[in-house]
Design brief:
5-stranded parallel sheet, 13 helices
Length: 404
Amino acid sequence: MSNIYTVSDLTKYIKNLLDRDTRLMSVFIKGELSNFKAHYSGHCYFTLKDAGSQIKGVMFKSRAQFLKFEPRDGLKVVAYGQVTVFERDGQYQLYADQLIPDGVGELSLAFNQLKEKLAAEGLFDESRKQQLPLIPQAIGVITSPTGAALRDIITVAKRRHPGIPLILYPVQVQGLEAPGQIVEAIRAFNRLQNVEVIIAGRGGGSIEELWAFNDEQVVRAIAASSIPIVSAVGHQTDYTLADFAADCRAATPSQAAEMVVPDVYELKRYIQTLQTMLENTMRTYIKQRRQAVCQLRDNRVFTQPEKLLAEHRQLVDSYVERLEQAARNSILTKQQQLKLHAEKLAVLNPLAVLARGFSLTRTPAGQVISAANQVKPGQQLEIILNHGRLEVEVACVRESKDGY
């Protein structure tokens, strides 16, 4: 029974066999990614498969942090690393040192993935672009202090407008430290607000040499800048992501200087053109005003004011006559109405009734007596005649049905 192994012993034995196999120490495996997971620790776990089989894989943070692209399920890759046994699970797997996209360059894939991501966030939208100032008071330049790009910018700027100062923020434009320095330069100019426009770029080079201007942090810093930025990476046919995020793109640093620095001679010609236009406009305005004054001067109000007054005087006389006639008609109408109302009042006047022989009987308290049943024998009454009044005592009361 000496050939009985524990599970751990057997697993270690198999692991030792694989670890001693030189072909498995350094192997390239082509397949399709699936079940890819980027752990919060920075490690990446995945499965590499083809039509007939699959193998588990892991890439630790120390290697994964250098990936230029974002691994995704379904992506065909070539993985480089070592195949060995993971003892705890007793299964063999690939410990990857590199993942290389199959059929497309790693940098090209990374470029397209990041471009798609940032475009979806709206960082490249035209609505975010800022206008370049016509005559900037100062221009910021972010580039290498020793590169040809800076010399080209200075040469063009001095030729076009030597009075506009250039403020250089020196940075590395390639290498691992370049993206961080470019980001800090952009943020420094935005904090200081000592320039009105920024040129950020470098001379031409390979895609690897230009990669700092494809870095995500650089692109986001350009998009977030409150100061307009001109991307001036020296490559006429290809674009960097900085070109898409910048407010304006120049094919070369020299062209960026042409765009940002106004030509002093063109400005002089423009000012002369504006001066001529202003003079012509003023002459036309003065001529029009002079004609208007002449028209007013020749108006009848000033040349024959008495005729204008005569017409108005005649109108006044006509209005006065019409007013007098209206007043007379109104008075006559009111007099007739007054006479008619007076006649109506005379008819209703109770004294006129008394004058025709009638009398008014009432009690000493003033109550008018209109029926015999309102009084009693012996009651004192007052009879009012047309002339004078009588104080009487009722001797008897006789009532009648016919009113008499």
